[in-house]
Write a structure and sequence with these properties.
This protein has seven helices and 19 strands. The chain is of the alpha+beta class. The protein is elongated. The strands form four sheets. Strands 6, 7, 8, 10, 15, 16, 17 and 19 form an eight-stranded mixed β-sheet that branches. A six-stranded antiparallel β-sheet has the order 9-18-11-12-13-14, with no helix packed on it. Keywords: Immunity, Innate immunity, Metal-binding, Zinc, Zinc-finger. It comes from Sinocyclocheilus rhinocerous. GO terms for molecular function: zinc ion binding.
Length: about 425
């Protein structure tokens, strides 16, 4: 019967994968030993480089080293197990032809062979790692090139759409200009025709004839007004008190707003902006073309434009297109900018007093105009997928500000300001 010591010794020379005596035993970094072929096959069949004994996982295939001592023990164990009598005689009767020096030389030669073999394994492992890294970088370069090509195509497509939209707008405006010129020519012809003048001079009922002419002109003006209104809906908007920041004070009619310079005790509802001095309008836009005007006067820190219905209303807010705001701004009395990402600075002279805002929902257009000078300031081109609300930002450092006002558009033809 085998003693516990001999059973323990036998267990120590067995591979835990193949359960047989070690063949070419190797050690891995965690300290456990396996047959070289066994651990290699195990890692090939597994998704991870993991020790079968302690389950330690390695980031890459670890280096392995030949365990020469364990190999000699395993080979000796195999010899004893195969022919115990002969090996017993061999151990009791040493070979007289081999001196102790020769045995030492042989041992050194064996170690040299082991080192060479380990070096070859390391070299093979390093080469594989180089090939893997080259593959990773090649894949990364291809991905970057693909992304660059897609970005170029996207920019070119947006440019084509912008050019198409601009050409369409130009064509429509040119047609409208031609129509207005034709009607103006007809009016001039009517007012300068000699027969018409003679008729007015000789007509017994001259007053009635003049009245008829005036009615004709008024009818023509009404027709032109109706045609313009078909193109753009003049929006009657008002400030929404349920969204206004507590620093902002609104008039009862909802058309005037100022920074109060003091905090008001208002209910903190989900709709209200609690940190940034913003309010929305009551009226939302989900289709069509719309236009309104805002009196900004001498104020030196404001934003006006449109915002998505889903914009964040709590805490600090970044007013930018990336966050759902399309806006024109005056910042600290020093510069005009638009809320692109990053912001784009504008050179505007003279200082804006009254700003017109135009939205074409289907075309994804938000435009700003200097009403006083009748000039275009800036246009955003985007796409809208949810309701938009006109929004207004008014800041004042430590005192009440003058008033920001929503103006009736009907007064734009007059010289006075609202």
């Amino acid at each position: 019967m085998a003693s516990p010591t001999s059973m323990l010794a036998e267990e120590q020379v067995h591979c835990s994968i193949c359960l047989d005596v070690f063949t070419n035993p190797v050690s891995i970094p965690c300290g456990h030993n396996f047959c070289m072929a066994c651990i290699g096959s195990y890692w090939k069949s597994s998704a991870l480089f993991m020790c079968p004994m302690c389950k330690k996982t390695f980031f890459k295939q670890p280096d392995i080293s030949i365990n020469t001592v364990l190999r000699e023990i395993a080979e000796k164990f195999k010899e004893i197990k195969t022919n115990p009598v002969a090996n017993l005689q061999k151990t009791t009767q040493p070979d007289p032809g081999q001196t102790e020096v020769q045995q030492m030389i042989q041992e050194r030669l064996n170690k040299v062979d082991d080192i060479k073999h380990s070096l070859e394994l390391n070299k093979s492992s390093a080469q594989k790692e180089i090939e893997d890294s080259m593959q990773v970088f090649s894949d990364l370069i291809r991905a970057v090139q693909k992304a660059q090509a897609e970005l170029v195509l996207d920019i070119e497509e947006k440019q084509r759409k912008t050019e198409s939209w601009a050409n369409g707008q130009i064509q429509e405006l040119e047609q409208e200009i031609d129509l207005l010129k034709l009607r103006n020519t007809e009016l001039e012809y009517l007012s300068h025709t000699e027969d018409h003048i003679h008729f007015l001079q000789t007509c017994v009922y001259a007053d009635a004839c003049v009245g008829t002419t005036r009615r004709t002109v008024l009818k023509l003006e009404e027709t032109l007004t109706e045609e313009v209104e078909k193109l753009v809906e003049i929006v009657d908007i008002t400030f929404d008190p349920d969204t206004a920041n507590p620093w902002l004070q609104l008039s009862e009619d909802g058309r005037q707003m100022r920074h109060l310079g003091a905090w008001q005790d208002l209910a903190d509802t989900p709709e209200r902006f609690d940190t940034v001095v913003i309010t929305l309008s009551r009226e939302g836009l989900s289709s069509g073309r719309h236009y309104w005007e805002v009196q900004v006067g001498e104020k030196d820190d404001w934003y006006i434009g449109v915002a998505r219905a889903s914009v964040n209303r709590k805490g600090r807010i970044s007013v930018s297109t990336a966050q759902g705001y399309w806006a024109l701004a005056m910042k600290k009395g020093q510069e005009y900018r638009v809320s692109s990402s990053p912001p784009l600075l504008l050179s505007i002279e003279p200082k804006l007093k009254r700003v017109g805002v135009y939205v074409d929902y289907e075309e994804g257009q938000v435009s700003f105009y200097d009403v006083q000078n009748k000039s275009h300031i800036y246009t955003f081109m985007d796409s809208f997928k949810e309701k938009l609300f006109p929004f207004f930002y008014l800041y004042c450092c430590d005192k009440a500000s003058d008033t920001m006002m929503i103006c009736p558009v009907q007064e734009t033809s007059h010289t006075k300001q609202c």
